């Protein structure tokens, strides 16, 4: 590159300037300058990188410190709490909670969590208690007993040990509730529990378990080397203890208990079957007349099956015409004139044949069927009695109908009776109701009020099978009956046993003193009739006088 310029002063040229430059040199200079610049920039870059790195490191350190802090104060407690919550969820309440020193939100949370877990544990204890104990008596309940029984069975199986299960049911407990009210019923139960616990404590051994299965049912597990003997001792003591009268509201309440015993592993080796067997055996004790104990036996299973079968058959038997009534005349002893008729139910089963009332009435009673059958019998009897009026001498005959304890307790007996009388048009004075002594015992208040209602209708009430329940003559004062029927067992033994004769004589005298009619049933021989006539027994009934008759046979007899 060459640049030439003249140097001029005014118009005079003084000289000139010439500048020339070499490209190579310039290039070398430029390269030099570039190199310098680059190294400068590099240096600055390195410095910045270093500062950046240092700052990064510091930031990282700060982050790490913050992380550790957060971990310590927030994450760890929360994680521990979550862990504790999981364990509590699984029912483990003794969990360790993180320390709650700080006054911040986390501390609050931990403290609240602690309180909450304690509350849950407390509720759980209460719920468990509720679920596993009986509220009234504080005894183990069915659920807890079953669980324990299952455990004990496993243990006894390993040790090869026997156990016994006692199924205890208070006899006629419902009566207490019905007559004295539920509060008194609860009180009676508590006193029974007292007696049972004491007996179990004394005779059942330390390992024994007592539970209330509901209502008036108690179950005892005797877990002892000598379980069979212990169970028998215990059952004997319980039957005796629970039969002792209880004084409630200044009244003596007579109850009893029926107990079924079953043995492990003899009778069954699982809880369900053992409990079922115990129940069956208890039921058999009831059938055997209550206030006693029975051992389970395989034969009982069949008995239960037969009973269930019979119950099914009995349902609808009336509609199928298998049930009918027969009539047994009742005579006045003085002139041996027929004055009335007792109605007796008969069941002619197409396959099983004639089934005695002693069997099927009990089935009907226990299944509650009697509440359906009873009114039907009553109605049919009233209708039938109207037919006798057409025949000579038949217009004054009374008809005597047996009424079961259950019918008596069902409450509307008086209404049923009134309805039957109204529908049939039978005068009330011609209807007699026979109640068994056992229906009335211990229940004098209810019985008395019911009898009062019946009396107001004009119906007469007789106490059937008198003497068998041994309620004592004093009951006659409390329960206003119009007549008693001396049980046929007395009549049968009268000739042989002077005590029975004396007792029969005393009953007659006592009844007459109270203005009560005396009927003797089951007279099979003239000698019995004569003996009773001598002692001025009012009425008499029995095979010697007449067997139960069909309605046609009775009408013929009347004619
Ligand atoms: P129960 O009321 O004491 O009836 C008298 C029972 O004695 C009847 O037995 C009768 O056939 C029987 N009998 C009468 N005279 C003699 C005799 O001289 N010797 C003997 N050995 N027995 C005699 P049955 O008909 O077998 O009735 C038994 C029980 O069944 C009755 O005893 C009564 O408690 C009950 N029963 C019968 N029918 C009914 C009914 O319709 N309703 C209710 N609730 N119970 C009934
Ligand atoms: Mg009778
Ligand atoms: Mg009788």
Task: Please provide a written account of the structure.
The protein is an alpha/beta fold and 559 residues long. Helices cover 54% and strands 21% of the residues. It contains 19 helices and 19 strands. The chain has helices spanning 23-89, 105-132, 142-159, 173-180, 182-203, 227-243, 271-287, 298-314, 357-367, 370-388, 405-409, 413-424, 437-440, 444-457, 475-478, 488-493, 498-514, 526-534, 551-558; strands spanning 2-9, 12-20, 140-141, 163-171, 209-214, 217-223, 246-248, 251-253, 256-264, 292-295, 323-332, 337-349, 353-355, 398-403, 431-436, 460-466, 483-486, 517-520, 539-540. It has an 8-stranded mixed β-barrel. Strand 12 and strand 13 (353-355) form a beta hairpin. The longest helix has 67 residues, at 23-89. The protein is rod-shaped and about 195 Å long. The protein starts with a strand and ends with a helix. The model has no long low-confidence stretch (mean pLDDT 89). It binds ligand C2E and magnesium ion (2 copies). Residues 464-465, 485, 521 line the site of one magnesium ion.
Features:
single chain; 559 residues; alpha/beta; six-stranded mixed β-sheet; 19 strands; 21% strand; binds ligand C2E; binds magnesium ion
Provide a quick synopsis of the model.
By secondary structure, the chain is α/β, with parallel strands linked by helices. 54% of the residues lie in helices and 21% in strands.
Which whole number gives the mean pLDDT? 89
Structural class: alpha/beta
The Rg value, from CA coordinates, equals 50 Å
The kinds of small molecule bound in this structure are: ligand C2E, magnesium ion
Tally of strands: 19
Uncertain segments? none
Strand order of the largest sheet: 11-12-14-15-16-17-18-19
Instruction: State the major sheet.
Output: 8 strands, mixed, barrel
Give the percentage of residues in beta strands.
15-25%
Number of helices: 19
Identify the overall geometry: rod-shaped
